[in-house]
Amino acid sequence: MKxxxxxxxxxxxxxxxxxxxxxxxxxxxGAPTESVANQDEIKALFPHTYGLPVVEFEHDDxxxxxEEPFNVGIILSGxxxxxxxxxxxxxxxxxxxxxxxxxxxxxxxxxxxxINHQYxxxxxxxxxxxxxxxxxxxxxSGRTKLENPDQFDSGLKILKELNIKALVIIGGDDSxxxxxxxxxxxxxxxxxxxxxxxPKTIDGDLKNExxxxxxxxxxxxxxxxxxxxxxxxxxxxxxxxxxxxxxMGRSASHIALECALETQPNICLISEEVLAKKMTLDNIVNxxxxxxxxxxxxxxxxxxxxxxxxxxxxxxSMKDLIAELNDVIEANQAELDLLTPDEKLEKIQGLLSPANxxxxxxLPKGIALQLSLERDSHGNxxxxxxxxxxxxxxxxxxxxxxxxxxxxxSGKFAAQxxxxxxxxxxxxxxxxxxxxxxxxxYNAAMLINSGVxxxxxxxxxxxEPSDKWIAGGIPxxxxxxxxxxxxEMKPVIQKALVNLNGRPYLKYASMRETxxxxxxxxxxxxxxxxxxxxxxxxxxxxxxxxxxKEI
Length: 551
What we know:
Elements (H helix, E strand, L loop, with lengths): L4 H6 L14 E8 L6 H7 L7 E7 L11 E6 L7 H15 L4 E5 L3 H5 L3 E3 L2 H5 L20 H13 L2 E8 L1 H16 L5 E6 L17 H22 L3 E6 L6 H10 L3 E2 L2 H6 L4 H17 L5 E6 L2 H4 L1 H21 L4 H11 L2 H9 L2 H7 L16 H18 L9 E6 L1 H4 L5 H20 L4 E6 L9 E6 L4 E6 L2 E6 L9 H14 L16 H4 L4 H6 L5
Parallel strand pairs: 3-4, 3-6, 6-7, 7-12, 8-10, 8-11, 9-10
Antiparallel strand pairs: 1-2, 2-13, 4-5, 12-13, 14-15
């Protein structure tokens, strides 16, 4: 594989480990835990893995040598996130540190490879080419859900055939929920298989006291912030466009908020705030028009608007519409597939309740059709396919025309649209993510050696230098609650939304009016890998603020 100049140098970077993982380790057990909600229901569903203690590693002065070699399997599950390859590298190095005869197997293209027995052994030569690189291409990823005993039993066959004692699932909240279910199942049937999860998602919605951030969030936000900064420089140079920029983040606005802190746009919409204030689509459009009209009075007919990918589902009236659409489309999918677009719109409108039918009919045709697309594997609307940025700019243009006719606006409005998603998912990880993911992987190997199952690898104290990071694990059931999925109540890891009382949001909210009515753009520039630690190793602004640090 031919490498770029940066890849060649970057391959030599040695990720930093917490001091506690640099030698022999032993587990320190904490107090028993309980789930974040629905304790009785979660306990009943996970009788063997519920209530386990939080564990933490500490230095072992009297280590016991690992005499018997063991094998480990890994799955990269769900969407890509920067640093996945370093998780794999960390697991590999941790296993080899324990015993050079230990072996690592990767299941190809996600959970499907586990079920269908498609795998490869990951050797030192293979790992070498992927250290400190972005992507999941070392073994590929996939979104097959692990949810039924037939799948678990099929996977168990290949685990036994390869003499694998532990499976590591590297994924987001749904993937780690699957890890918890799998750990419980194997425990219940007496299979001697450990299951360990690793917290991955650029969306940043998999976190709590023990999982301070999910890996990939730092890198993705810095990639997006660089490009937003570039657009803002162009915007301030040409002074003739409003750039509507949609950013990944279906269920939470962490990415949009972090990018707003990094770049200081004129407007950043926060989905959680929209829901809390019960804002309508009209409220949002009116706010954007207010900012545009006020800037026009100063002769500024340009600006930037950041929009979370999942915004539309947080608008209460749209949320109600989408919920009913989910049921209507699932019940009538076969019939709807045979209709023309116009017939489909008419049919769906006729099946909706009067209030939702009226709202559905008021939407631009293109957006209505996008809302009516086939649902994803969880039964949810595919929000990444909904051009929310176009919906808002179209409605803003219409409202500004009405304001101009009433003599309330005399500026010029022209829009440009952007969606930043895939651009950040496979970037080479920042030093922070390279160190963090390597530590998570190495830590996962130590958890396996300690004999635990149903745990998520946890590395915290992340705003301190890496040698002061704290390594250990938390029971996955501790993060779970019950939610409705496809009409049924299911145990899932509770998503971490933007906290409207938290320091990251309050920091942005304190600047919002000033940023809206001035041009105070920041230009973060590209990710820096070489140079002063305060630039190259700096965590996200969100993480710094959440830990009481200044930015």
